[in-house]
């Protein structure tokens, strides 16, 4: 592959994440020779813009990946399962934003600031983690390395962007309907999200947890190489547009102080400490929207754990939680000269 | 006092809680002979309605409590401290919604469904608990009695009504400003609350916790008579109008199962089990607004605790969290024939 420009495909190019992937590729100067926007039949024919040029979205098909060096997938689990093997067979490396391959032992699951060293083990496919997990790990993983995290108790405050572009539209529409006293219509969520919160993100499992809630433990274990990590999580959708927040109580093996934790977090890449509560300075979703870095604050010793720390972390769901993380994985592959499907 | 009707004062009669106190007194048929709506100078002269009659709010003064048998206070800590002793000296029993007296050993702190037996010990003053604590204890206290709660990890999703009527107005105004692309104005909160969440409820302490976050442990200990109870809490304001929700991980002394917990909660007064996640049935703040009962759901074994249970509880902040709880305390005093200031 050398280091020259690549043909790059984006599958799910018209979705909330796909749109952001195209922006991030352009904004970060990723060496794209030509961009191939792809989608399933429903969205084919729409237009996207890349470097000032309008491009027509093509329907994904068996020939879509010929000559393509990198594909970023964000069209959901079913298209990923269908087109992932076809793309890699065509010699295209895939960074997949769905949960389809995250637990496949042959597929690295990567937050670049945490486990970039896992990138070169890929066999053509790398998985992008769950958004809430990625945002939480930006603060938790460096603390784990320093103090040894046993377990966390976490509650999320998740933006509607995690459900996609139609959910952002739904929140805006419902707020308008409420303000004007009109009947509230629902198309995306089972209940009104405007002026409400829903303790329901992704599907429910027989255990009573949602799939989303279990991703923190399952993906956290793989990304942090920490099979004993335990996470008790409640995931909640809130009427916020595009950034997630997470309240975390973390228990550590080693004694932890706020000062020591702050020193660790100050060195953590991709993370800003926003923590001056006396002046009402703390992370908030509205003010991390559009930012590459996540923000951590509300650092304090945990009242109910002996070696425990509480913190509050917020991050742009479409950036750290999806598009930025995927492009950074591709950048790691370029930097490590492994942006190719290995033979055999 | 006998059991006959009383003259009843409401201090803070024009606030969000005071307005609701007057509604609850009327709705529950509390034996009010005359209602005396009181407020500090700022709100005196406004009108309130009780049993279809418009009443003019009087400025609270040294003579306001003459002949008054019961006063419900909800004007904030400073007026409570100023007027509480004057009212009780005049022979008026005070149920105070502020935090001013909650930790006074001579003042019972009561959630009637949990510790009504503490009511008769009052010396003229009974404190109403913090709203988030009261709502959480509706589910936690019965579980504690059955299984022995060691500690909880909790995150709140608190409605703007907890800040008062002006905060409800602020949320509506800001949402309208955002929808119309106008500049967002702030009068109550230090940051925009519309389409945002603020990890900031009440003032910050040197420990990094807010006062609100510590109320769960401090008031929980007193109400449950459980001095070893530990609570690690993050309190967060969300753009919801008038009901709070709390995500709780609770650790118990005895083994707990979802079935055993459900059986305990099914017998708990003032609480509805709303828990059929497969059909998207779980408590939500929008749907407990205006309801006397709190709602609990999302029952599941805790992933990170050995004898642990996760649950999600929601309740109307102005009712269980304030006005209803206060009127129920007064009802308990009537029923126990102790609605009088004891002598000596």
Protein model, in words:
Two copies of one chain form a homodimer. By secondary structure, chain A is an alpha/beta fold. Chain A has two domains: 6-129 and 322-335, Rossmann fold; 132-317, Dihydrodipicolinate Reductase, domain 2, CATH 3.30.360.10. Helix content of chain A is 31%, strand content 23%. The first copy, chain A, is built from nine helices and 14 strands. In chain A, the strands form three sheets. A six-stranded parallel β-sheet of chain A has the order 5-2-1-6-7-8, sandwiched between helices. In chain A, helix 1 crosses helix 9 and helix 4 (131-147) crosses helix 9 (319-335). The radius of gyration of chain A is 20 Å and the shape is globular. The relative contact order of chain A is 0.16. The mean pLDDT of chain A is 97. The interface between A and B is large, with 61 and 60 residues.
